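note to self: dont lose this again. the chain is below, predicted strucutre after it. 241 aa total, dont forget to put it in the shared folder this time
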Amino acid sequence: MFLRFWLVTALSICPPVLSPVLADPLPMLTLAEREAWTAVGRVNSAGYRKLKACTGTLIAPDLVLTAAHCAGLTADGTTSLHFVAGYDRGRYIAHRTISSGNEHPLYSRTEGNEKLRFDVAVLRLDAPIPPEIISPAELIDDGDGGGAKAILLGYHNIRPDVLNGREDCALLNKTQRFRLYDCEVISGNSGGPVLEETPDGLRLSGVIVASSGHRGDALVVPVGAWLRDTWRRALAQSQRN
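---
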């Protein structure tokens, strides 16, 4: 299956086919739905009111998951980003500066579309967000995921001030490297979470990294071994602290 990809970060220019005139992006969630997903927030390049942003998800008290092309990491793993959890029309649940980050170790070693399969990063907050304020999202178990339907969430440049999403995104294609869903994604959705229902509740199963084809279908990198190991180490460290 031939796929044409575009990165969907707001920090780059989207092709004309994804312009607001033609776009049918993720719709705005209701207030109750937005309040249920405060672990999802904006990853901003500077300050919580900055409009140029991607999406990120709190997966541990001091760890945020996003796309690597959103992370803006320097060679020593530092960045000038901020994470604004539960951002909603100027209000937010928590705001933290990113102190450091790690992208997938193979992200910088690959080129072209192959690079997208490693387009994930975890960002370390300068201070934890206590679980009693925000419950971090949990990653799906190894071997699970890739079901017929999924929830896709994210901020985007048409409605950057509220969380948008759909709970009925149908799986179009599944490989070891990628999953393709029929929900359109646009600038700002990069780094957004994909969640699936499991016997233990909703679990995060992937990260939005790009749009595919003329419809802008969501291209998703599934949760893999590197991310699970990083997540488990972060949780263990949080428990020790």
